[in-house]
Design goal:
Layout (H helix, E strand, L loop, with lengths): L10 H4 L22 E7 L8 E7 L2 E7 L12 H4 L2 H5 L8 E6 L2 E6 L2 H18 L5 E5 L4 H11 L3 E3 L1 H18 L16 E5 L9 H12 L3 E5 L12 E3 L6 H14 L5 H7 E2 L1 H8 L4 H8 L3 H14 L3 E3 L11 H14 L32 H6 L10 H6 L10 E5 L11 H10 L2 E6 L11 E4 L19 E3 L14 H11 L12 H9 L5 H7 L1 E3 L23 E2 L3 H5 L20 E6 L13 H6 L4 E4 L1 H7 L6 E6 L8 E5 L7 E5 L19 H4 L4 E2 L6 E2 L4 E6 H4 L1
Parallel strand pairs: 6-7, 6-13, 8-9, 8-12, 9-10, 11-18, 13-14, 14-15, 19-23, 20-22
Antiparallel strand pairs: 1-2, 2-3, 4-5, 4-15, 16-17, 19-26, 21-22, 21-26, 24-25
Helix pairs in contact: 4-17, 5-17, 6-13, 8-11, 8-12, 8-13, 11-12
């Protein structure tokens, strides 16, 4: 028998004694706003932007969520997803009690357990791993602020293994590419100064659909003031509809366009010569490098006319330094992603936009002291060298390499904690490896609010309450002006769910590590931190957001001499460090994978304003806005496949993998050689009452992975699909 069979949670196991609070039933409650209203400060956890706001309850029942006007993340306005946050609390399919895997009569299943049973089980397994393999053989997969508690617990135990899938599956290439160029990254929220920009260039960035709140607001502010918008995208996105120039580029050829733009700026003398002379190293080598990449050559690769390439380059230069060539967020595309991010950074340097008003500003947060804790035990091994040693330039854990390092009897990692991340819908092509890891690990713990697919591999499932029912770490994100925000519970935890801090504290106490959580309630730690900067938990409960004065300038001073955290102390167009590690010191163009035949379309994917990846598809409030995704195809492609608008098809990729049925949207807003899906749909978990079976899972169709050789990211855009009418596939 397998050590772990994949188990879908049954409706019976996920049911609890408490019925979910309904948002309907108007006959038994007064009109909104006429009862006793209580307002509680919150920090939205529906996406990582973490906007501050207020939860209003009426007679103890949920009413609404709205933004805090003192918060620069939101300026008082929540996005669609933030407004729908109450749906996370009311979702009837939430995890409701701890569960432990058991085998009875040769069959594996989950049985409800008490918290004490779950903690005893986990502690015993962790101690056994420590005795047999060493205390450093556990790893945390994490997404969200609550992962910090489990990282603390594992650090105290002696395990430093840690990975956020958002590094290797999303933002990692830009982190590495900008750091190689400027000596520091873009940060989060992004340090783009779009509210003061006169030209904004979006390369595959779906602003307006990807609702990172303050970023969208500053972008719209710039457009209202007359900024020029240039959008590079195979699809006529929301952003493209607001653009002076839409460049419907051939998928995968972005590097060719970036190099041609550099060619124009350098050869026409449009770059910022004073800025380059003062701050930049390697212009001579870049100049020689880009001579071959003419706009005429780029036209043969991208399909963008040479005159358009020249005109858009001149638009950027005319507005510089108040020009933002946006770095993007999800940038793991074609395997050359660090180099493509480097090309964006180099273009930014030529325009003189880094550290300049309307380009990239310096964000600032509060110097908030950490709560005093014991010194952690020294790590016995360098886990990153052991697990991902072939990527020495990667500054963070590479999720798929951690999975590889957990397979087999001689695997480095022997136990996992998975917090708030549904790995099968996050990491492409990983299903088989997840199954292999599940057979090798000695402990597999999942902490989540919802019964996503990842729970099917767990030994123990621990139900965390939603952000509306718990305290979270103080939000101290960098912004244009520093501020702090605190998320307070507006409700008691439903069912038998618990806050993440409470769960991690009790596991630590079972392991004899209680001095790492030396308080009864997490609020004691938050209050201590706040008092170090002249505030308190009581004050934050009243105001929600506290602003602080900036202590550093936003922009470079005129004629300022600066040292950059690079080998040369300057902005590096030519990277000796990359050359030392055997990589190209300047970005080069590699043609993308080509279509197998005319019946295969490039698979592109993106975001929708109503959802955060796959984590909100089951949210009853947001599901009502967008219950399924659609497959965008051009009328020419629809005619070739004999399908009409609104019909259902299955998508079949180049390796024979088929999707669930998905409705066709026939539109001229996409290239004829491409198909587009919103990410996050196509769940196959019966315990998700709304999301199950709705739409197509783009992640399942991504079986060709283009690995970034510099930082290990998973390029996901090299896949192709054909369309099969649903009646033909039935």
């Amino acid at each position: 028998m397998k050590r772990r069979e994949f188990i879908q949670l049954s409706a019976t196991l996920s049911a609890g004694a408490m019925a979910p609070v309904a948002l309907t039933g108007c006959a038994e409650r007064p009109l909104p706003g006429t009862g006793e209203v209580v307002r509680t400060p919150t920090v939205c956890n529906v996406c990582f932007w973490r906007c501050a706001g207020t939860v209003s309850t009426e007679n103890g029942r949920p009413w609404k969520i709205e933004g805090n006007p003192d918060d620069l993340h939101s300026t008082g306005r929540f996005c669609t997803r933030g407004d729908g946050g109450l749906g996370m609390y009311t979702d009837p399919d939430r995890l409701k009690q701890p569960m432990i895997r058991v085998t009875e009569n040769g069959q594996q299943r989950f049985r409800p357990a008490t918290w004490d049973e779950a903690f005893d089980y986990i502690a015993a397994k962790m101690n056994r791993i420590k005795d047999e393999h060493g205390e450093d053989r556990l790893c945390l997969f994490s997404h969200g602020p609550g992962g910090s508690y489990f990282r603390r617990m594992l650090t105290a135990f002696g395990s430093r293994g840690y990975t956020q899938p958002s590094f290797a599956q999303c933002r990692g290439p830009r982190d590495v590419g900008f750091a190689l160029t400027f000596g520091e990254g873009v940060g989060s929220p992004d340090r783009t100064d779009m509210e003061n920009s006169r030209c904004i260039v979006l390369i595959g960035s779906h602003l307006g659909e990807n609702l990172h709140n303050s970023q969208v607001q500053t972008w719209i502010s710039a457009l209202r003031k007359g900024a020029t918008l240039i959008t590079v995208d195979p699809r006529f996105s929301v952003a493209a509809g607001k653009s002076k120039h839409w460049l419907p580029i051939k998928p995968g050829t972005d590097m060719a366009l970036l190099l041609a733009w550099m060619h124009v700026l350098i050869n026409e003398g449009l770059y910022d010569a004073d800025y380059v002379d003062r701050y930049v190293n390697g212009l001579d080598k870049l100049t020689a490098h880009v001579q071959q990449f003419t706009p005429e050559w780029a036209f043969t690769q991208t399909g963008i006319r040479p005159e358009v390439i020249r005109e858009t380059a001149r638009e950027m230069a005319k507005a510089a330094p108040a020009t933002v060539v946006h770095p993007g967020r999800h940038v793991t595309w074609y395997g050359d992603d660090t180099q493509r991010s480097r090309a964006i950074a180099i273009l930014t340097a030529l325009l003189g936009s880094w550290g300049r008003e309307g380009g990239y500003l310096a964000m600032e947060n509060v110097n908030l002291p950490r709560y005093p804790l014991p010194d952690p035990p020294a790590p016995k091994n360098n886990w990153m060298q052991a697990v991902q040693g072939e990527y020495p330039l990667a500054p963070a854990g590479i999720a798929q390499k951690v999975i590889d390092g957990s397979i087999g009897d001689d695997a480095f990692f022997k136990g996992w904690f998975v917090y708030g991340t549904n790995l099968g819908y996050t990491i492409p092509g990983v299903t088989e490896k997840l199954q292999q890891a599940a057979q090798s690990l000695d402990l597999f713990v999942v902490v989540d609010t919802m019964p996503y697919a990842i729970t099917g591999y767990a030994d123990v499932i621990l139900p965390e309450c939603t952000y509306l029912e718990r305290l979270d770490p103080i939000r101290n994100s960098p912004e244009r002006e520093p501020s702090l925000a605190v998320n307070f519970p507006a409700f008691e935890p439903k069912y038998d769910s618990k806050p993440g801090w409470w769960i991690a504290k009790h596991i630590a106490e079972r392991l004899g590590l209680g001095d790492w959580f030396p308080w009864k309630d997490y609020g004691e730690e938050l209050d201590w931190q706040l008092r170090q900067v002249g505030s308190s938990l009581d004050e934050m409960r009243r105001i929600g957001v506290k602003k602080f004065p900036r202590t550093t300038p936003k922009y470079f001073a005129p004629n300022e001499n600066r040292q950059f955290n690079t080998g040369s102390g300057k902005i590096e167009l030519h990277s000796d460090l990359l050359a030392d590690y055997g990589h190209d010191p300047l970005p080069v163009y590699t043609p993308p994978p080509t279509r197998p035949d005319e019946k295969h379309l490039h698979l592109n994917y993106g975001r929708a304003a109503a959802h955060t990846f796959g984590r909100t598809i089951n949210n009853p409030t947001l599901f009502e806005l967008m219950p399924e995704n659609t497959a965008w195809v051009h009328p020419v492609a629809a005619g070739d496949f004999g399908v009409s608008n609104g019909e259902y098809v299955r998508l079949k990729n180049q390796d024979g993998v088929e999707s669930l049925p998905v409705r066709i949207r026939v539109t001229q807003r996409i290239r004829p050689d491409s198909v587009y899906l919103v990410h996050g749909f196509g769940h196959k978990e019966s315990q998700l009452g709304l999301a199950n079976g709705r739409g197509a899972d783009d992640q399942g169709l991504i079986t060709r992975i283009l690995v970034d050789p510099i930082m290990g990211g998973t390029g996901m855009r090299g896949n192709f699909v054909t369309l099969i009418p649903e009646e033909a596939s039935a």
